[in-house]
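Quick question: what would this complex look like in 3D?
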Amino acid sequence: MIAEAGHYALVLALALALIQSTVPMIGARLRDPVLMNVARSTALAQLLFVGLSFGALVLLHVLSDFSVANVYENSHSLKPLIYKITGVWGNHEGSMLLWVSILALFGGLVAMFGNNLPLSLRANALGVQGWVSTAFYLFILLTSNPFLRLANPPLEGRDLNPVLQDPGLAVHPPMLYLGYVGFSISFSFAIAALIEGRIDAAWARWVRPWTLMAWMFLTLGIAMGSYWAYYELGWGGWWFWDPVENASLMPWLAGTALLHSAVVMEKRNALKVWTVLLAILTFSLSLLGTFLVRSGVLTSVHAFATDPTRGVFILLILCVFIGGSLSLYAWRASSLKQGGLFAPISREGALVLNNLLLTTACATVFIGTLYPLGLEVLTGERISVGAPFFNLTFAPLFLPLLLALPFGPLLAWKRGDLIGAAQRLYAAGIVALVSVAVLWAWVRGGSAFAPLAIGLALFVILGALTDIAERSMLFRMPLSISLRRARGLPRASWGTMFAHVGVGVALIGIVCETTWNTELISTLKPGDVAKVAGYELKLDNISQRQGPNFGEMLAHFTVSEDGKVIGTMTPSKRSFTTRAMSTTEAALMSRGVSQLYISLGDTAASGAIAVRIYHKPMVLLIWFGPVLMAFGGLLSLSDRRLRVGAPKPAKAARGLQPAE
Amino acid sequence: MSLWFLLALMTVGAIFAVLWPLSRRTAVKREGRESAVYQDQLAEIDRDIAGGLIGETEGAAARVEISRRLLAAADAEEGSTVSSSLRLRRAVAMIALIGVPVLAGALYLHLGSPALPDFPLASRTRAPAAGQSLDQLVAQVQSHLETNPTDGRGWGVLAPVLGRLGRFEDAAQAFRNAIRYDGDSAARRAGLGEALAGAANGVVTAEAKAEFERAVALDADEPKARYFLGVAAEQDGRPKEAAALWQDMLSKAPADAPWRPVLETALKRVGATAQTAPDSAASTKMPALSNDTIASVQGMSEGDRGAMIRGMVDRLAARLKQNGSDVEGWLRLARAYMVLKEPDNARAARDDARRALAANEADLRKLNEGLKALGIDG
């Protein structure tokens, strides 16, 4: 009954999505408030039914009901409870159900908290959201149905892919999907604006919190995925320029550009047409990512199942939505009123530069990812576009972006003072240059560019701090007054600072890890000692252990530095009998923000074991940076101004008072 | 609470979600306004000027810009009229009342399986063993071995059963585990070889042959191993050798040995009788393979032998095309394709088989189960 109820709930959600995609839009056309309000209740009911459906699938996995094909294929009764739950989205059908659940969640959130929106905008946006939902419900029900049953249920399931039996699966896909799908809201708003043929500065403010939320989750999702790959795949790498990773990076780059261009639109009523285009492109790239991962065009850990009919269906969705929205854009964009002009040296000018560089970077990733695929389809020739291409194209684009980054927040709107901004950045620049010189003198080995890149990162960090110091008049006023001023700054300014500092922090991590990373590959017997970067790692013994659904071989290492024992590390290899697969569980030891990393290779007949040992300096900063960025986003999101306009029945006037 | 009651309840909930806003005659006007945003922006300009984010003169200009937008927005808000048509409302209500249940019901009945009960793990383990099928018993033993992978005797019990179920790959693995954890024996080596040959569609591969030879080394009279060594000789194009080996077995075999008839048919196949040794390969009796084939098999490379297997597979496929009611034949074909590493063909065979067997419920179920074991369902 659970499976059937879940199945029916999904079908009902489809029926509601169909109503949501038509009735409110007719209502908006006729200015009929009653019909427009249908959007709200259908979106909420859809959320309820999809939630029921998703809950049913989770319950089926927890109860190991193998009469459901999806559970049989991806679960095992001996699997620990957490992996029974995360296994729900560790497979194609379940992950698509998570996708639509999040889509419905965002629809429900707009319905619930969208009181500050004009009725027609909300109705149209939810209508567009209804189209997207309809397409994906049909996709799930017709080609990837998680509720299909087996008449003769087997006694035991086939187990989840062992690589995915990791806590990372609990966090990475939901985060990433919250990001991908969150951009559907900006997309829906953009299409709604095009349909209404009217777009204003207010639109940007209404869309901003949704974009910000999606961007935050996408940032965390990508960082989490990168960390997971780092510790699970056993290669010590954290970014491979793998097409699947690129598929998530492209919407991030476009989304970051959107976030910045929406600010210009909100403040200056300019860049309107461009912002709408970015909103469409960002979600299109999210859809493209879904297509690349889900269609089986690419084979990777993410391609749980490949089936041509699914690929064709998603391609169809992709063509209809991207093609349709871009056609609508081409048709209606010219009718949108153009915004004001502005001087090149100004805050808005700096943001345009940011947009140019980010979208170009996004385009290079797009070409690097799709060109090999296109070539293979057309000529059958297989080429691989890897790190060299991206390093050569991506780095030169990010360099000027980072150089210009500290100037942006220091420039005033409308007409900025570049020399004034430069003067205020003197301190940051000098500190950065001094640290470059010190690093050059102090560090041996590695690329000559590394100290320069670190200097640039420091410039970005200090530049971001300078902005806040300037605005709170630090060192120019008594400390108490400065503190009071700092507290009075809008939260969005603090958010900007944290996000920009995060970029610098991540850059330091990336440069240090790639330049001064030490690697040792060797074969060790129990009792052998390996020396890496000043640490001594002694292999004490190798033991076997039986896990709940796997056998495990553990190697025990004692780590010492200058003769003093500082801890033990136990990397292991797990073999899963049901799938006849094995996974490497690397052992990590953090020393500050640097890490020691051991992963095991094959065992030789002599009892020796191949090990790969890395010392990765500053590696944790790579993920700490994105966390800072997301925290900045959160601060920005909590800014009072984003909630403005929400009618408050009792004390309507309060919402319009100046900031605290 | 029955399933249908629950589904009906959910349908009512969905319809209610559409009807509810329609029923609210005077929709409360809780609409966000653009003017609110612009008023807030005006206040923000003052803060920006104070913070040095915008120059005094530019700030003044911006204030004019925003005020202009504010006036336009306020005008538009005044000017817009709202109306609600009762006719449309009724139409939407009708769509919800009829469309939602019809659409949801039709789609669900097409896709769902309302007749199937739940089958959670808890109720399964409680079910008495007597009523369980062989498959389920095997699965139970397998899950036991999952947790105790070093139980060699368990593997030894499971392995022949898996072989008989046609799950040759699993059987081979089980035999290997039994040998590893519970000691070597001629019977286990022979069983392993048989499983390997079974997995290769009856072809005694070099790997399988090695196992049979090991079995014979352990026990020179192991009948299964010796029989299969004969088959290997036959498949290598040396029927005389095979016949001699089988003859020898027959002469030593006890009269009640259960495998006597197997040997006799095998001897007939290579053109020798149980009493007389074959005088030539060109015997009057029809061999399983024509002389030409045998000649060509001799000295064949691995690839050529593959081509011959191909030919057999194609013949099987052709036969099934004409008479599609043979479930075992379909499964053999699908397995052959999997062995040949042609999953696309295997899937095509699956689809053809489902079409051919569509009329026969029992056969279809058998087919689906077999396909599942091969991993090409869905």
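Answer marked as accepted. Chain A touches chain B through 94 residues (CB under 8 Å).
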